[in-house]
From TrEMBL:
GO molecular function terms attached to this record: Wnt receptor activity; Wnt-protein binding
GO terms of biological process kind: canonical Wnt signaling pathway
UniProt protein name: Uncharacterized protein
Gene Ontology CC annotations of this record: plasma membrane
Organism: Panagrolaimus davidi
InterPro entries: 6-blade_b-propeller_TolB-like (IPR011042), Cueball_EGF_LRP_Nidogen (IPR050778), LDLR_classB_rpt (IPR000033)
Length: 420
C-alpha cells in the first residue's frame, strides 16, 4: 500500500499497489476491497512504477504518476468510471502531486513546483517562481474539502461510537471501529473497556510485540517501553501477569528482567545483575513470584516482585550432567515443570513450587532436544517441542503417560504456547 487518500464525502479510500502498479479501493472502514476499480494495461508490468496518488474530492478525480521507458506521465481517473484513466501530462520528472481547484501541481526532484490547468495541462504548464527546495506540499482551503451531500452521521456525538466513527457508502452509513486488537461489543458501538484481553507476546530480539487474539486483525503492536538506543538489547524470554495486566521480559544483554503495562507505562526493572546464562523466566501470578532459570548451572531462583525484590535459590543445580532448558509454572496445581538434559537423554521434570519433591515425569529417547514446553492443567496435558525432529509431543500432565506426537509439520520452531 502506498499514497493513501480518503474521500469522506462518499466514504471510500484509495491507494496505490506498487507491486501490481494499479489503484485499489475500499470502504473507509476497510470493507469491500476492490483490487481493480480501473482498467489499466500497465498492471503487473515490472518496467512500470507508480507513485504520488492524489484526489480531487470536488471533481471526483484521481491523479497519479506513472513512469515507464524513461517517460513520466500524470494519469487521471474519474472515480466510479472503470475505463476513464488517461494521460493528462508528461513532465520531464515529478515526485509529488496535488490538486487545487482547476489546477494540477507537482514538484520535481530538484525542489521546484510546476502547475497547469487540468483540462489543458500540456499547453499551460508554468513554474512557480522564487521557490526551491520543495519535496512535498499540500493546500488548505475549505473549498477543496467539501461537506457530504448526505448526512454526516459522525458529526454528532461521534456517531454514538466510543472510539472511532468511520463513514462509508452503505447502510447504516457509518461504522464504529476500535483500536487495534480491541473487540467491539455486541451493541456495535462500544469498544471493550478492558482493552486487549488475550494476546500472543513475541520477543523479537531488540523489541517486544503483542498480537491481540480478541479480533481477527492479528496485527503486531510494539510495546513502547523506555529504552536507551545507545545500549544493547537482547530480549530472549517473556511472560505475562494476567491479574495486573503487566508483561515481563528478560533482556540478556543487560542482565535484567523488566516489566510494564502493554502501553509501555509503569516501566520498571525488577531483577538486575543476572548471569548471562539466565535465559528463561516464568511468572507465578497467584503467588506473585518470578522464576529465573540458569541453563548453564541448572540453578533455579525465585524472586518476590511485590513488597521488596527478595531472591532465593530453590534448586541449586551444579550437577555437571544436567542442562535445564525451559520452565513453566502451574500455580493452580502447585507445580513447576522444566525440560532437562541428563547426559544424552532428554526428560521433563516437575517439582513443588518451592523446589522440593522433584521427580522425573517423562523420559524421552536418546538425543532428544527439548526447546520449550507448555502445560494445560485443565486438560491434564503437557506439550513440548523436540528440536532436531521438529515434533510437538504431548503426554498426560498427572502421570506422564499417554505419550503421543501431535505434529511433525513445522521446521525450526523454538517456542510453544496454548490458547483455550
Amino acid at each position: 500500500m502506498h499514497s493513501l487518500v480518503v474521500d469522506p464525502t462518499e466514504g471510500y479510500m484509495y491507494w496505490l499497489n506498487k507491486v501490481e502498479n494499479k489503484i485499489e479501493s475500499a470502504w473507509m472502514d476497510g470493507q469491500f476491497l476492490n483490487k481493480n476499480p480501473f482498467h489499466d494495461t500497465f498492471s503487473n508490468d515490472p518496467k512500470v512504477t507508480v507513485a504520488a496518488l492524489t484526489l480531487d474530492p470536488v471533481e471526483k478525480q484521481l491523479y497519479y504518476l506513472r513512469v515507464w521507458q524513461e517517460k513520466c506521465e500524470i494519469v487521471s481517473c474519474k472515480i466510479h468510471h472503470r475505463s476513464s484513466c488517461k494521460v493528462v501530462a508528461t513532465p520531464d520528472e515529478a515526485s509529488h502531486l496535488s490538486v487545487y481547484k482547476d489546477k494540477l501541481f507537482w514538484s520535481n526532484f530538484h525542489g521546484k513546483i510546476y502547475f497547469c490547468k487540468k483540462d489543458n495541462c500540456q499547453k499551460t504548464t508554468k513554474v512557480v517562481s522564487n521557490l526551491s527546495g520543495f519535496e512535498r506540499f499540500m493546500f488548505l482551503d475549505s473549498e477543496v474539502q467539501p461537506q457530504r451531500k448526505d448526512q454526516n452521521l459522525c458529526a454528532f456525538n461521534n456517531g454514538g461510537c466510543s472510539h472511532f466513527c468511520i463513514l462509508h457508502p452503505g447502510e447504516p452509513f457509518r461504522n464504529c471501529v476500535c483500536p487495534i486488537g480491541v473487540r467491539l461489543l455486541s451493541d456495535n458501538a462500544t469498544c471493550d473497556p478492558s482493552g486487549v484481553r488475550r494476546a500472543l507476546f513475541v520477543a523479537a530480539k531488540t523489541t517486544l510485540f503483542y498480537i491481540s487474539l480478541d479480533t481477527r486483525e492479528f496485527a503486531p503492536k510494539r510495546i513502547a517501553f523506555e529504552e536507551n538506543p545507545a545500549e544493547p538489547i537482547s530480549i530472549i524470554d517473556v511472560d505475562y501477569d494476567p491479574l495486573r495486566e503487566i508483561v515481563y521480559w528478560l533482556d540478556s544483554a543487560k542482565g535484567e528482567v523488566r516489566r510494564s503495562f502493554l502501553n509501555g507505562t509503569n516501566f520498571e526493572i525488577v531483577a538486575s545483575k543476572l548471569s548471562p546464562s539466565v535465559n528463561h523466566i516464568a511468572f507465578d501470578w497467584l503467588g506473585r513470584n518470578l522464576y529465573l532459570l540458569n541453563s548453564e548451572t541448572g540453578r533455579l531462583e525465585i524472586q518476590k516482585i511485590e513488597g521488596g525484590f527478595y531472591r532465593k535459590t530453590i534448586i541449586p543445580g551444579g550437577k555437571g550432567r544436567e542442562k535445564p532448558c525451559c520452565i513453566q509454572v502451574d500455580p493452580q496445581s502447585g507445580f513447576i515443570y522444566f525440560g532437562n538434559f541428563y547426559g544424552e537423554h532428554g526428560r521433563i521434570e516437575r517439582a513443588w513450587m518451592d523446589g522440593s519433591n522433584r521427580q522425573v515425569l517423562i523420559s524421552l529417547p536418546k538425543a532428544t532436544t527439548i526447546t520449550d514446553l507448555v502445560v494445560d492443567s485443565e486438560g491434564d496435558r503437557i506439550y513440548w517441542i523436540e528440536g532436531e525432529s521438529s515434533k510437538i509431543g504431548s503426554a498426560k500432565l498427572s502421570n506422564g503417560g499417554d505419550i503421543k506426537v501431535i505434529s511433525t509439520d513445522f521446521q525450526h520452531f523454538q517456542a510453544i504456547a496454548k490458547l483455550g
